[in-house]
Design a protein that fits this description.
CATH class of the largest domain: Alpha Beta
CATH superfamily of the largest domain: Dihydrodipicolinate Reductase, domain 2
CATH architecture of the largest domain: 2-Layer Sandwich
Distance between the termini: 32 Å
Helix content: 25-40%
Largest sheet: 8 strands, mixed
Structural class: alpha/beta
Number of strands: 11
Number of helices: 11
Low-confidence stretches: none
CATH topology of the largest domain: Dihydrodipicolinate Reductase, domain 2
Strand content: 15-25%
Strand order of the largest sheet: 5-6-7-4-8-9-10-11
Shape: globular
Order of helices and strands: HHHEHEHEHEHHHEEEEEEEHH
Radius of gyration: 20 Å
Number of domains: 2
């Protein structure tokens, strides 16, 4: 993500790359040489924030480093775009949310890229309009060739990557769930397996979401981190229509017919022109509001924790690992 964000910053006329840091200095130097040959490479995140003469910091480090680095960046009056998850513990997340609220002149954004994509923003608008009635159920599927890529990396370290595939790539799905529906978490049950890795690889969840009047909405989620291809689906079943996102396209289902809602393809997907970097630059230049504030990290963390706790209890009761 450091490479992806840096490339986007370098390509946007509103920004200039002012400095680089990585725990592996050679990696930072390669990135600098590729995108901003005149920019300095620093020996620590603190030095980068203090001496790069920057206006903003983009933090793409492992989760356990986020809290200290966000705090350090804020101490040097920088705007901050931080990759998800925001923090490794609930206390860290709450402290960073409070920090973001206390500094009214600084902007703090979390890198949940799907919030910027046209398909999710349109789905949210369709649901909020009320024209399709109340939500009656939600189902979602995430699958990816993820386990095959993590051996020897921090993503296979349970002390750094909380929740494995669920906590890493799956956090986007949990955020989408809350973002498009405005529902909150009720009760759930879950099962999970590490499939030979050190972190969770396959996680299955069933439960209930709640609206503001505590009406229950059944949901079912599956996260398969050892598949052989990428696949992403979200179904929000309403009283009068189904709203469906399937691999970067939005559909509506009515009367046994499914039709695509026509949206610009370049504004959704991995190569979208709408992403956290463009959204962050819009924010700090005053062109748009913050649609991915630090606050959105807390329900995702709480749901991740609830899922992992439920899966662990089930595994303990069944004697599985």
């Amino acid at each position: 993500m450091g490479l992806a964000h840096a490339e986007r910053l370098a390509a946007d006329s509103r920004s200039t790359l002012a400095g680089f840091y990585d725990a592996d200095r050679e990696m930072a130097t390669r990135l600098r040489d590729l995108l901003a040959p005149d920019a300095p490479v620093f020996d620590s995140a603190e030095d980068t924030f203090a001496h790069s003469n920057a206006d903003a910091a983009v933090i793409c480090t492992p989760t356990t480093a986020h809290a200290s680095q966000v705090q350090a960046a804020a101490s040097h009056n920088l705007h901050v775009l931080c990759e998800k998850p925001l923090g490794a513990t609930r206390d860290e997340i709450i402290s960073l949310i409070e920090l973001s609220r206390s500094l009214s002149g600084r902007h703090f954004m979390l890198g949940y890229q799907r919030r910027f994509w046209a398909i999710y923003r349109q789905m949210k608008q369709e649901i909020a309009s009320g024209q399709w009635g109340d939500i009656v159920a939600v189902t979602a599927v995430n699958s990816e060739r993820w386990q095959q890529t993590i051996a020897g990396t921090w993503r296979d370290d349970a002390d750094i990557n909380y929740g494995g595939y669920l906590g890493d790539a799956g956090s986007h799905r949990l955020d989408n769930l809350f973002y498009v529906t405005d529902l909150k978490l009720g009760e759930l049950s879950a099962r999970s397996t590490k499939a030979g890795s050190n972190v969770e690889i396959v996680t299955l969840v069933n439960g209930e979401l709640l609206d503001d009047s505590d009406r229950t909405v059944p949901f079912s989620l599956s996260f398969v981190g050892n598949s052989n291809s990428f696949h992403e689906e979200l179904f929000v079943h309403c009283e009068k229509a189904d709203l469906i996102i399937r691999d970067f396209q939005l559909f509506i289902g009515r009367d046994d017919q499914v039709e695509q809602i026509d949206l610009p393809p370049e504004q959704s997907g991995r190569d979208s022109t709408r992403n956290p970097v463009t959204g962050f630059l819009d924010l700090v230049t005053g062109a748009a509001e913050n649609i991915s504030p630090f606050e959105c990290s807390l329900p995702v963390f709480d749901m991740t924790t609830a899922i992992l706790d439920a899966a662990r209890l089930r595994n303990e009761s069944s004697g599985s690992a």
